[in-house]
Design brief:
Mean pLDDT: 82
Largest sheet: 8 strands, mixed
Distance between the termini: 43 Å
Low-confidence stretches: 274-278
Number of strands: 11
Order of helices and strands: HHEHEEHEEEEEHEEEHH
Strand content: 15-25%
Strand order of the largest sheet: 2-3-1-5-4-9-10-11
Helix content: 40-55%
Length: 327
């Protein structure tokens, strides 16, 4: 059988064509599987019409359930159009202004995503952790490893707003807190992001992990500042300064890639007259605990079960609503 690589082409072009062919084959595989299952089901139905057979009927029911699952899987994957949707994700949570209130809210979100990952069977790797002054956290960065982690979580980027009666207020007054979430993909080895070493400032410091974890006596933690953009990434997950630097560089590459992609989207949106920016002022979801309501401001999807939401149990519903709306 003739392969693309057998064609009289420049080797690099032949390799690219072969990769595209392999990708197309991979994308068509579920549809071929579905067609075969439908053909098998039709054959079973024809046999059942010719003769009453309870075993054949049971087999047909099982096959029908399999067909329904295949269709559901295909519909699920149709929602993911981003190049890196199927891969891993980096998440950064930053508390907003407001001191202890905001830092406690950031910690609640950190817990919510950890619980969600546990339920999905995703692995969570803590990369950087900055504890709050009294309670909660100032910020945290972590990596989520799992199938379609980035595709599922990318619409979580934005400002999350909490309204509640504060446990830190002796008067039990209502407080509003903000936290910002940034989700970036883990880039694969085929993506090259050019970074000029002269644009970087690399600082090392002593790790200060959560609850005494990851703490060591050497300056193994790494902070990298990219001067042209002002992007800062940090990693203190390993005792090795070299490994922390490598992980921080991966985060920086992902953030720079996302920045360029966002610039392209903004340019298109400006031309269409409907630019939407993702900044600290861009609230995507409100969690109003007094009224027992969590509402996504982009999709209008909401729930009254706030506790289940903060336990990570209902996050999938909000994610699906965002993906279906094309957020």
């Amino acid at each position: 059988m003739l392969q693309v690589s057998d064609l009289w082409l420049d080797p690099d072009k032949a390799k690219t064509l072969q990769q595209e062919k392999n990708l197309l084959d991979e994308q068509m595989r579920p549809f071929r599987h579905l067609k075969q299952s439908l053909d098998d089901l039709q054959a079973l139905v024809d046999l059942i019409d010719d003769q009453a057979d309870s075993e054949l009927a049971q087999e047909a029911d099982l096959l029908m359930n399999g067909v329904k699952q295949l269709i559901a899987d295909i519909e699920f994957k149709k929602m993911f159009t981003h190049q890196f949707d199927s891969g891993n994700a980096f998440i950064e949570i930053q508390s907003g202004s407001g001191g202890t209130e905001a830092q406690d809210w950031a910690d609640m979100l950190w817990r919510m995503y950890r619980r969600w990952c546990e339920k999905k069977g995703f692995e969570v790797e803590l990369l950087d952790y900055s504890p709050g002054d009294v309670a909660g956290i100032k910020g945290v960065t972590f990596k989520i490893t799992g199938s379609y982690a980035y595709g599922l979580l990318r619409t979580e980027t934005g400002v999350h707003r909490l309204v509640r009666k504060s446990p830190f207020d002796s008067g039990n007054r209502r407080h509003t807190s903000f936290a910002a979430i940034f989700v970036t993909p883990e880039l694969d080895d085929t993506i090259e992001v050019q970074i000029n070493p002269a644009d970087l400032r690399i600082d090392t410091y002593r790790a200060s992990g959560a609850g005494g974890q990851h703490v060591n006596r050497t300056d193994s933690a790494v902070r990298i500042t990219h001067h042209p953009t002002g992007i800062v990434v940090q990693c203190q997950s390993d005792r090795s300064q070299h490994k922390n630097k490598a992980q921080a560089m991966k985060q920086l590459q992902a953030k720079l890639y996302e920045l360029e992609e966002q610039k392209k989207k903004d340019q298109v949106a400006q031309l269409e007259g409907q630019k939407s920016d993702i900044t600290w002022g861009a609230q995507v979801r409100s969690y109003i605990l007094d009224d027992a309501r969590v509402k996504d401001l982009r999709t209008q999807y909401e729930t009254t079960n706030t506790q289940a939401m903060l336990n990570g149990e209902l996050l999938d519903d909000f994610i699906e609503a965002s993906l279906l709306k094309g957020v």
